[in-house]
Specification:
about 280 residues, D-Maltodextrin-Binding Protein, domain 2, 15 strands, Alpha-Beta Plaits, binds magnesium ion, six-stranded mixed beta sheet, binds adenosine-5'-triphosphate
Length: about 280
């Protein structure tokens, strides 16, 4: 039985459970319970604060965890192995200063004070760049620190940037890009790793089918080559002859963002009956 640590509440909780669900693994929601077992996969979920996930996985209390890459990096004294980037919970850790202050470059921070909840990442970044700066660790509301005179700048999580704008701050350096990652206890035994690999390949299927559509299009045989340049397929294209001789159907998986552009170009070369379907899973 594998044990996976998930955030009990917060930004990653829902998306982590959704990923498990889409991978065909049912677990009870966190009804104030610390542990919940899956009814159809050999896994149990341990619900924790995200700060505690790297340590819990590092020492093997949980075999796996889903946590922000930023937390993994901050808690590098509790090493874990990153197996997969899960492509949700995207954000970045950035330095920001009051927007009316001139920014000459990184040397701005020499001899200054920066407030953050991520002192470890910031210290190794400044050390690497030869900047000597006083790092003030605070747990929350980092963005108000400059306005109350606690610091000259901040180092914090940014996603849209609207929190910075609201607090009169401007982002000046991006230090780390982050998303949710699947982590594992270093040196996990082979028997458990086999189940982990099954889980990872299910996650890969779920992630790679996100934002994809299935496209069916009828093209005159003389235009097949041109059509295949517009919709390149993953391997060899699926081509099916139609009852009406002289026509074929092409099936392909296309990025949702490109569907309209591709459909317009296909119509221009004489394609007809373009059908776009949602895609449930893509198992490679
Ligand atoms: P916990 O109570 O579990 O300690 P928390 O308050 O520390 O939760 P959340 O705010 O729920 O943490 O964020 C969890 C993770 O979500 C972050 O560590 C980060 O990886 C990711 N994240 C993505 N976008 C954002 C954002 N805009 N603000 C904060 N975190 C974000
Ligand atoms: Mg936390």
């Amino acid at each position: 039985m594998l044990r996976i640590a998930l955030q009990s509440k917060g930004r990653l909780n829902e998306k982590s459970l959704e990923l498990l669900r889409e991978a065909g693994i049912s677990v009870e929601e966190n009804n104030r319970k610390l542990l919940a077992r899956s009814s159809n996969f050999p896994i149990e979920v341990l619900y924790l604060r995200d700060d505690d996930i790297p340590q819990t996985v590092s020492c093997g209390i949980a075999d796996l965890g889903i946590v922000g890459y930023n937390e993994v990096m901050e808690r590098s004294s509790h090493p874990v192995e990153v197996l997969q980037h899960l492509e949700f919970g995207k954000c970045r850790l950035s330095l920001a200063i009051p927007k009316y202050v001139e920014y000459p470059g990184l040397e701005f921070f020499n001899g200054r004070k920066v407030a953050t909840s991520y002192p470890g990442i910031l210290k190794s970044y400044f050390d690497g760049k030869g900047i000597v700066c006083e790092i003030r660790e605070i747990a929350g509301s980092v963005e108000v620190s400059p306005s109350i005179g606690l610091a000259d700048g901040i180092f914090d999580i940014v996603s849209s940037g609207s929190t910075l704008v609201r607090n009169g701050l401007a982002e000046v350096e991006t230090v780390l890009e982050s998303d949710a990652v699947l982590v594992v206890t270093p040196g996990l035994e082979e028997e458990k790793m086999r189940t982990v690999r099954t889980l990872m390949s299910r996650f890969t299927s779920v992630i790679s089918s996100r934002g994809k559509k299935y496209m069916l299009v009828n093209v005159p045989n003389g235009k097949i080559e041109e059509a295949l340049k517009i919709i390149p397929s993953m391997k060899s294209p699926t081509l099916l002859p139609l009852a009406d001789k002289g026509w074929s159907a092409i099936h392909a998986v296309v990025d949702e963002s490109e569907v309209w552009e591709k459909a317009d170009r296909l119509k221009q070369i004489g394609a007809e009956d373009i059908l776009i379907l949602s895609m449930e899973k893509l198992i490679i």
